[in-house]
Specification:
- The complex is a heterodimer of chains A (165) and B (667).
- Chain A has one domain: Four Helix Bundle (Hemerythrin (Met), subunit A), CATH 1.20.120.610.
- Chain A contains five helices and no strands.
- In chain A, helix 1 packs antiparallel against helix 3, helix 1 packs parallel to helix 4 and helix 3 packs antiparallel against helix 4.
- Chain A starts with a helix and ends in a 5-residue tail after the last helix.
- Chain B is of the alpha+beta class and 667 residues long.
- Among the domains of chain B are: 147 residues, no CATH class; 71 residues, Alpha-Beta Plaits (2-Layer Sandwich); 127 residues, no CATH class.
- Chain B contains 21 helices and 13 strands.
- In chain B, the strands form five sheets. In chain B, strands 3-10-2-11 form a four-stranded antiparallel beta sheet, with no helix packed on it. Chain B has a three-stranded antiparallel beta sheet with strand order 6-8-7.
- Classes of the chains: A mainly alpha (165), B alpha+beta (667).
- The interface between A and B is medium-sized, with 31 and 31 residues.
């Protein structure tokens, strides 16, 4: 067991990073889309004609999961876990783990928060469908922070490839 | 182009022509009625003899009739039919419709009467079924339920609450013997009995039975239960037969559906016309109509009214008057008009941003989607819808055009960044044919050079924001606010450009953005930039709060205005989403390709590859097109509009033909 850990620690750490990125950001999105979906279903019960609009709003918190997937995927392919020998040093594995953290953390919390904002915006569309353009902006404001986290994660990962350990 | 210039218009005509004139103006739909002429002794508003209620009732009936037709014969509607738009009907058809009016109306009321009939008959069937249910416990009885006795005897037929045995009943009746009790049926809720006694004992038996909760059955009939059952079943059959004939008749009116829809529209048009007619000031022989008209439509209106004895006067708006806003743009820029309209229409003194937005919109959209294959699909899809549905409603048409242009932009960026469903071509050629074909990006690979693409995204942001600032400057100049132009616009340009120059002269910034290249701006020029920015800041501290009289307050406000520099920083950083979303599309497609190629290159491998490819890319197209759309909108609404555009104009709402099912075309 110890031998196994010693031999593969780098890969395990990188894998943990990818798991956190996909898992946490995905959970955030799932919760966000869930909350927004509850609100959306209520609106559809009253007026099925608003389906297109509320669906767009419901989907907005779904992007964090995608961002997590991107980071997870880049990590897996760069560390060689996907389609490679998959043997990297502990130091490098740690670097990948850290690089995954921004989107994991910000992805989770922004996904939940964006879901709440989306649900509120769905309420706006229920009462005033013509204000859809403005209602869409509020959840998008939240998303900015997930995008910033994604950006730092991408930059860190693409930098990690050239870090020597 | 932009906001259409509005004029005030006053039309004065003879009352005998009023109907024809109002119809003409309604069909043109270029005037928003607005009361400029006050009532006086000669011109007064008079209520019309016809009330709007009748039109409304007819419209309501027509809608109900269509709904009835729909319940029996749903109109076919696919996903694509929502793009179709309303059917076109000619002026002639409209003019001739009044001859058919009464026949359509009677069809309509016949349909409604039939549907009411059906509903009533269905209710009767329910009632019969209930009676059948109630008869079930009495089925064993071979005398009529309402039999009260013979010459010498009294008969009680009814139910006792709870489950009784024969002994228990005789026991309860002990004081009133002789009686004859038969239990017809029993369950745990009730016991149905028939009790026969002497006529003389009727009253005492009756009270004894009441004492143990006896109740007569809720169904009553002069036939025996089994005969009654047959009767009821026959009745139900008869009703069902009748419903069938009614329904057949309703279905036979299905071909009248277009006419009924037309009637709804026809009444809607007339309703609006009468509402306007009632609101116009009129004298004994003449009427006056006033409102706003877009200047370019004045000749059309004059031509259309040439046959009538009318005077048409137009005049400029009064000082400070807020006219309703109507946007008009060329075929390209009108595609983003919906984006502007869903934010807000320009207020007085603001320009129509549609044209400028259309320049940036597709660059951002393409950058975020940045996949040539997906772009091509979106372009083809939207183009197909546009070609197939010539009648598409204008708003929907603009939005579809927006996605078509967006698709083209995504193709261009996809070629630049070398993404065709991610790395589909190298994956397939490498995996299935063992000889990877490398598709070189025309410009660079986004995934390999994220910092370069990030710099590009930020530069685009700076250009976008500077454009917004310039438009604000233009608006201030148009309002002749020179001080505002210098201190809110020019000084900010100096500060921002000064800071950018300083940044570009610093090794640290170059390390981050350009991978450690030597700064191409020498340090001393960088310092000049810094000094210029410093002077600009001082100017803003002094002038930023110039509307305050108190100097202390003014300087504080000025200092706060300088703090606005952080908002420029965050605005520019916000454009990093161009890179993030641009990467997302290609990476997700690549995920599909990688998963698909994990299952070997045999027949099974190929099938799995195709399935995975289709599913993941369908999701990818949906999510990323939505993402590109909403985030491009956000960049326009928040980062761009924030610098020059508040909106708040009132939309132009012309007196026009507002129909639901048909569009009218002038011949």
């Amino acid at each position: 067991m110890i031998d196994f850990l010693q031999a593969n620690m780098g890969t395990i750490l990188a894998l943990l990073g990818a798991a956190l990125a996909v898992g946490l950001a995905g959970s955030g999105s799932a919760r966000g889309v869930g909350v927004a979906g509850e609100a959306a279903a209520g609106v559809i019960a009253e007026d099925p004609g608003k389906f297109g609009k509320v669906m767009v709003l419901q989907l907005l918190p779904g992007t964090q999961g995608i961002y997590g997937l991107i980071i997870g995927f880049i990590t897996l392919s760069q560390t060689g876990i996907l389609g490679g020998d998959g043997n990297i040093s502990i130091g490098k594995g740690l670097v990948y783990l850290c690089a995954c953290l921004p989107i994991a953390i910000a992805g989770y919390f922004s996904g939940v928060a964006q879901g709440k904002a989306s649900a509120a915006s769905i309420g706006v569309v229920a009462k005033k469908p013509d204000q859809f353009g403005k209602a869409m902006i509020f959840p998008i404001m939240v998303e900015t922070y997930a995008i910033l986290a994604l950006l730092v994660s991408i930059l860190a990962i693409s930098g990690a490839a050239s870090v020597a350990f | 182009m932009a906001i259409l210039a509005m004029k005030r218009i006053t039309i004065c005509g003879l009352k005998k022509d009023s109907k024809a004139i109002l119809e003409t103006i309604q069909r043109l739909g270029v005037i928003e009625i607005q009361d400029f002429t006050p009532e006086d002794e000669v011109f007064k508003k008079k209520p019309m003899p016809i009330s709007g209620a009748e039109f409304e009732r007819n419209i309501h009936d027509a809608e109900n009739a269509i709904e009835v037709l729909n319940t029996y014969n749903e109109e076919k509607s696919g996903i694509l039919s929502s793009f179709k738009g309303r059917a076109v009907i000619s002026r002639e058809d409209y003019d001739n419709f009044h001859t058919e009016l009464s026949s359509v109306k009677s069809t309509m009321s016949r349909i409604l009467a039939l549907s009411k009939d059906v509903a009533e008959k269905k209710a009767e069937i329910v009632k019969c079924n209930q009676q059948l249910d109630m008869l079930v416990p009495w089925e064993g009885l071979d005398i009529p339920l309402d039999l009260s006795g013979t010459e010498k005897t009294s008969v009680f037929i009814g139910a006792l609450p709870g489950d009784w045995t024969l002994d228990a009943i005789y026991e309860a009746m002990a004081e009133n013997l002789p009686v004859d009790v038969t239990i017809i049926s029993h369950d745990k809720n009730q016991t149905c009995i028939m009790l026969i006694c002497e006529k003389a004992a009727h009253d005492s038996v009756n009270s004894a039975l009441r004492g143990i909760g006896f109740a007569y059955p809720s169904v009553s009939c002069s036939a025996t239960p089994s005969e009654q059952k047959v009767l009821l079943q026959q009745e139900i059959e008869k009703l069902e037969e009748q419903i069938k004939t009614c329904e057949e008749e309703i279905v036979s009116y299905d071909d009248q559906r277009p006419k009924i829809k037309f009637l709804a529209d026809y009444q809607k048009i007339r309703e609006e016309k009468y509402a306007v007619a009632t609101s116009l000031p009129q004298s004994e022989h003449a009427f006056v109509m006033s409102g706003y008209i877009p200047e370019k439509y004045i000749p059309d209106l004059e031509n259309a009214l040439a046959d009538y004895a009318v005077t048409v006067e137009t005049s400029d708006l009064e000082e400070g008057e807020e006219a309703p806003v109507l946007l008009k743009n060329n075929a390209f820029s009108s595609s983003v008009q919906g984006v502007v309209e869903s934010y807000a229409l320009p207020a007085k003194g603001e320009i129509d941003p549609s044209f400028i937005i259309s320049l940036f919109y597709f660059i951002f959209f393409g950058f975020m989607l940045s996949d040539a294959a997906i772009g091509l699909l979106i372009f083809l899809g939207a183009g197909f819808l546009l070609l197939k549905n010539k009648n598409m409603e204008p708003g929907l048409r603009n939005n579809t055009k927006l996605f078509m242009f967006g698709g083209i932009a995504a193709m261009i960026f996809g070629v630049l960044f070398g993404s065709y469903f991610g790395d589909l071509i190298p994956s397939i050629s490498g995996h299935f044919f063992g000889n990877p074909i490398v598709v070189k990006p025309v410009w660079l690979d986004m995934q390999q050079n994220p910092m370069t693409v990030l710099s590009l995204a930020l530069i685009m942001g700076i250009i976008h924001i500077f454009t917004g600032l310039a438009i604000n400057g233009y608006q201030l100049l148009k309002k002749k606010d020179i001080v505002g132009f210098i201190f809110d616009i020019v000084v900010w340009y100096i500060i921002l450009i000064g800071l950018i120059v300083k940044c570009l002269s610093m090794q640290m910034i170059m390390d981050i953005l350009a991978g450690g290249a030597k700064p191409f701006i020498p340090a001393h020029i960088g310092n000049i930039g810094l000094y210029a920015a410093g002077i600009g800041c001082i100017a803003i501290i002094i002038m930023g709060g110039r509307e305050s009289k108190n100097w202390g307050k003014r300087l504080l406000k000025g200092a706060y205005a300088v703090y606005g520099i952080t908002s420029y920083l965050s605005d520019v950083l916000s454009y990093s989403r161009l890179l993030a979303l641009g990467l997302a599309t290609g990476v997700i497609s690549s995920v599909a390709n990688m998963i698909g190629t994990m299952f070997g290159s045999g027949v099974v491998g190929i099938i799995i590859f195709i399935v995975v490819f289709l599913i993941i890319n369908a999701i990818n197209i949906g999510i990323n097109t939505l993402g590109a759309y909403v985030h491009t909108n956000r960049l326009q609404y928040v980062e761009f509009f924030g610098h020059f555009y508040d909106g708040g104009g009132r939309p132009f709402e012309p007196y026009s033909v507002k129909t639901k099912y048909y569009k009218f075309k002038e011949n």
